[in-house]
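Journal club side-thread
Mid-discussion, someone asked how the predicted structure for our own chain would compare to the paper's figures. Pasting it here so we can look after the session.
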Amino acid sequence: MPVWVEAGGWALVGGMALVLGALVAWFVAVPKRIVAGVMAFGAGVLISALAFDLVDEAESAGGMVPTVGGFLVGAFAYVGANVLLARRGAQHRKRSSGQATETATQGSGAAIAIGALLDGVPESVVLGLSLLDGRGVGLSVLAAVVISNVPEGLSSVAGMKEAGRGPRYVFGVWGGIAVASGLAGALGALLLQAAPPTSIAFITAIAAGAILAMLTDTMVPEAVERTHLFTGLVVALGFLAAFAINRA
């Protein structure tokens, strides 16, 4: 099987975790505190994956300069795009409450969909790149994406329902994001399979910077709002779980 096809398949698996979370939230009223707790755990898992799988490996393969440069580019790019989307009503797109309605903010539905795509693509690219070393998909990165995507789907869809958005919009968004995730993973592997280590390090670091900015701006606030003083503990547990997977 070509590497890029396998990369697309694994990225699609990660994207389908969002659909799974969306399905659960649409049919089951999951308590918001539980959703926030799982989101805090997922944030810790992602932070660990960033530290030990993405940034560390990027620096080892390509050096400090492309890693730092890519990381800053990713963080600045994500924050800049997020600011623009927030002005269109997408600032609470992963919240279980408080999302903008189309009546209150014209175009907020499109902004939320674009924001969801912005959140999901960097993770998918990283999954695709993890296959380029010939050792198979990075299990700790895959686990981080899946564990974090399920509560993202749960929380965001709960907010979408509260804002009055229908099933066609909700599942159209998350189904589309899952497909886009698969395509992003496949393209990342296809376009970069012959790239030099410095280029791969730079792209990996861009994704890492964007992911860290994403979880800080969208996942952590929701977790803190619901789990309060226990957020730090749950994040720490998620970090340790991912670290154990990495070392195993």
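Post-session note: The radius of gyration is 17 Å.
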